[in-house]
């Protein structure tokens, strides 16, 4: 803590300003009270709140505040006293960003995608964490050494979270079949798209495992949807705004299934950051909006499509047997070139894992490995 650090209260005590290094940060008294890090307010084991926050008085104030070492000592008008670690308060003061934190945007110039080894990720927590961190940061990871049997990726899925089952089952084939129930099961090329926007919730991560890929063509295309959205925001703000406001519907139907949902092609979080993209030409159904609004939407969609199909943003790769792509379905547009079976068989397998279980596994592993590293450093200095 610097000597110049100071804390001040507003005249009514309902605002507290913490000034460190000439950078003031303001906190509401009511927010501080309901977040008080003590056993009366938060359960020590779960971190869940024990008091009913909605019953706190709306005019609650901080009556006394002082910096004490690395903590901020507070006394509130309801009589509660608590010590806040200053580091915890600073962690809450996050800078505004255009996309969610810890992401790296990329385009066709991406030199080296995140890579992982299947056996290492299966057996070693540090390797698994590195794989999940790369997936979180870049939006996809290329995994090698996956067994080339039909359920070869299942063991690694089980290290992360349950397989998401759909009307197509668990792990499903991606190969050309007669009477295909979906265009992925044909030889045609596929435009850049996100999967299953007609579901609620939309599957979080796509696992695409290559068993054999000897057909002519069939290369995968990958586009960073966050990057595409940011480029659109920079170059055509009106189109960007339109695609964040208009929510087309998406629909999938067959003899046994009827799925419908809706959402904007570019979705923002509460801070205005890009948090999700959608694009699925095959299943999109736009409502009969007023003609002027439809005209704006169609022009904006066309501008976005031009970006996500451009050489500027597209990475190409062809999976080899034993390789697997794990892709963030909230971020990545993926597609493929058409292929011909004259050159050989193209057989991939695909499954889904939800976003919450994947994020949970990454964050728990990060916490545990940091704890182990801290304990190891203490042992070395003892």
Automatic annotation (TrEMBL):
GO terms for biological process: carnitine biosynthetic process. Residues 115-352 form the TauD/TfdA-like domain. Keywords: Dioxygenase, Iron, Metal-binding, Oxidoreductase. Its EC number is 1.14.11.8. Residues 9-82 form the Gamma-butyrobetaine hydroxylase-like N-terminal domain. It is an enzyme of class 1 (oxidoreductase). The keyword Glycoprotein does not apply. Pfam families: GBBH-like_N (PF06155), TauD (PF02668). One of its GO terms (molecular function) is trimethyllysine dioxygenase activity. It catalyses: N(6),N(6),N(6)-trimethyl-L-lysine + 2-oxoglutarate + O2 = (3S)-3-hydroxy-N(6),N(6),N(6)-trimethyl-L-lysine + succinate + CO2. Its cofactor is L-ascorbate; Fe(2+). Converts trimethyllysine (TML) into hydroxytrimethyllysine (HTML). Belongs to the gamma-BBH/TMLD family. PANTHER family: GAMMA-BUTYROBETAINE HYDROXYLASE-RELATED, TRIMETHYLLYSINE DIOXYGENASE, MITOCHONDRIAL. This is trimethyllysine dioxygenase. It comes from Halomonas organivorans.
């Amino acid at each position: 803590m610097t000597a110049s650090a100071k804390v001040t209260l507003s005249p009514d005590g309902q605002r507290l300003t913490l000034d460190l290094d000439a950078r003031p940060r303001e906190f509401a008294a009511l927010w501080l009270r309901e977040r008080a890090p003590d056993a009366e307010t938060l359960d020590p084991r779960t971190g869940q709140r024990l008091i009913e926050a909605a019953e706190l008085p709306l005019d609650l104030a901080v009556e006394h505040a002082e910096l004490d070492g690395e903590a901020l000592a507070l006394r509130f008008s309801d009589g509660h006293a608590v010590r806040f670690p200053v580091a915890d308060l600073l962690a809450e003061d996050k800078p505004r960003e255009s996309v969610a934190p810890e992401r790296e945007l990329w385009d066709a110039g991406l030199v080296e995608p995140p890579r992982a080894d299947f056996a290492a990720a299966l057996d070693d927590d540090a390797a698994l964490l590195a794989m999940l961190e790369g997936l979180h940061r870049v939006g996809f990871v290329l995994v090698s050494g996956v067994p080339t049997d039909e359920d070869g990726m299942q063991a690694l899925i089980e290290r992360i979270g349950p397989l998401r089952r759909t009307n197509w089952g668990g792990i499903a084939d991606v190969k050309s079949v007669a009477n295909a129930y979906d265009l992925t099961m044909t030889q045609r090329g596929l435009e850049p798209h996100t999967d299953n926007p007609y579901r609620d919730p939309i599957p979080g991560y796509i696992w695409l495992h290559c068993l054999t890929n000897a057909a002519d063509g069939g290369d995968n295309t990958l586009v960073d949807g966050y990057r595409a959205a940011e480029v659109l925001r920079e170059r055509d703000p009106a189109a960007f705004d339109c695609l964040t406001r208009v929510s087309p519907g998406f629909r999938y139907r067959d003899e046994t299934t009827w799925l419908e949902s809706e959402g904007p092609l570019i979705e923002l979080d509460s801070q205005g950051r890009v948090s999700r993209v959608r694009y699925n030409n095959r299943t999109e159904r736009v409502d009969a909006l007023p003609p002027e609004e439809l005209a704006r939407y169609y022009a904006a969609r066309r501008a976005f499509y031009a970006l996500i199909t451009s050489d500027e943003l597209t990475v190409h790769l062809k999976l080899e047997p034993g390789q697997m792509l794990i892709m963030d379905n909230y971020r990545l547009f993926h597609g493929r070139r058409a292929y011909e079976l004259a050159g050989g068989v193209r057989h991939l397998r695909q499954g889904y894992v939800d976003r919450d279980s994947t994020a949970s596994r990454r964050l728990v592993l990060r916490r545990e490995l940091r704890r182990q590293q801290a304990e190891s450093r203490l042992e070395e200095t003892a």
